[in-house]
Specification:
Number of helices: 0
Structural class: mainly beta
Radius of gyration: 24 Å
Helix content: under 10%
Largest sheet: 6 strands, antiparallel
Length: 543
Amino acid sequence: MIRKDIPIEYPYLHVPFKPGPGKRWHLQLWLGGTLLREVYASITAEPDAPYYFLNVRPFVGKTLTLAVPESDGLRENTLDGVIGGGEPERETALYPDLYNEELRPQYHFSSKRGWLNDPNGLAYHRGQFHMYYQHNPAGTPHGGVNICWGHAVSPDLLNWTELDDAIAPWRRDWEIASGSAIEDFEGRAGYGPGALLCAFTALGTFNEIPGREYASGGQFMAASVDGGNTFHLFSTQATVPTENGAGWRDPRLFRFGDGYRMAVYETFKGRNCVSFYASDDLRHWERTSRNMDLYECPDVFPLTDGSGETRWVFYGADGKARIGGFDGRVFTESGESNLLDYGKATYAGQTWSHHPQGKRVHISWVISMDGWTAEESFPDTPFSQCMSIPCELTLDCLDGRYRALRNPIEEVFSLRTGDGEALSVDAAGGTDIAIVPQSDMELVWDGGDGGTLTIHAGTHAIQYTPRERTLAFDNGEKALLRDSRLRLRVLVDTTTMELFFGEGVAATYTMHPNARRLAFDGGGRITGRRWAVRSVWPGSPER
């Protein structure tokens, strides 16, 4: 064992760590005989290692003890590298490259430190957009450990300020898995009108002993009365229990009529499903129905098209939007469905509750980079993964069938700088358009001789057949466009390329900066305009 007593004079402890997969140790934080927190992290005494940070604000003026019970492989002086200090900011000596690292996306959200994945608890509350997310603050792999709800706020869904993690595990065998948030306008849960309520899963965490996985605890609820910064559990018992420790998870709260509903990923008779629950007081829930063959991270909401027709949209983590109707108890599928994203990089998308203009805005976790596993995809960086650009979802009826479309929110236009650069290239023979990092392009194909156009995005190929108005993606999926004249918007960031065809058929791809490519093959000309896009990060010259 190694240990060190640290008088707490500042709100954070800054801990040197080694990014990426590798050996990790249990680092414990004690106040006297009380264990406050334990993280499983690749702590190190190596010089020039990056730092992550632990919030110790409630203990300023006290002395805490850092301990590593099983310290084989660590130097005796490893804990001497832990430093007390203020906010982790670019201006401080410990974080000189913050938001300027080689692989850092410049207008897509990523966490200051550590791993992120699923967006959680999306809600507009007290004049701000809140985004909680799956966060390992003490390492760049997910690893099934340390997972809590990270937290960021924004006035416009683009310029984000990262705050302290909002919900952390209170048991060593659980992690805080995905969920949702809504505002309790009437105060039905007992925390007063306007409290922000969240539902999440206490999921069994990683166990170093193979075959001895920890049991999950079910769906819990918590309330915030301070604007979403801290949450108080309804109870230490699950609001909606699981069965036999099964990993049922990802509760999605929403209002329906005068009551509340919750959609939860579960299993039934060996099959994946999403169950619907109903409640009037947000504390007592009744299961009303199941929809089979959906997996993880459900979302469900109504959309209304331009003619006033309303349909409900329901999907799981794969983003396959099922169109249908919902009567408050049962979702009935119409048989119409489409992917919200036809690429190979998005997962676990969710939408914001209570958008002030009534819009339905969607964001997804963008997984890894092409050719890399997720946990290897940001090598040697102190952060890993990012979110997609926020997109507005709309309902559209084409050839008598309803579908959900996805387009970047209007605020993305505000990130463009200057008047842009005119583009005009021959689309024959695999002609490339030079990639400019952090850019926004609007392109049109003139149709050539009416044959097929192939669009190359990195290593991926998409074929467009104008006679059929059909896009064929390299994952075997197809999508229909309204107009035979191909219009394309392309958003390029450090590791992402997001394509939006026609009226809102989206495809997201990830790629290392050295592998970025946008090319066309099929004849005719591609014309359009390209704008440089400014960084959204604090301290950036363009902000």
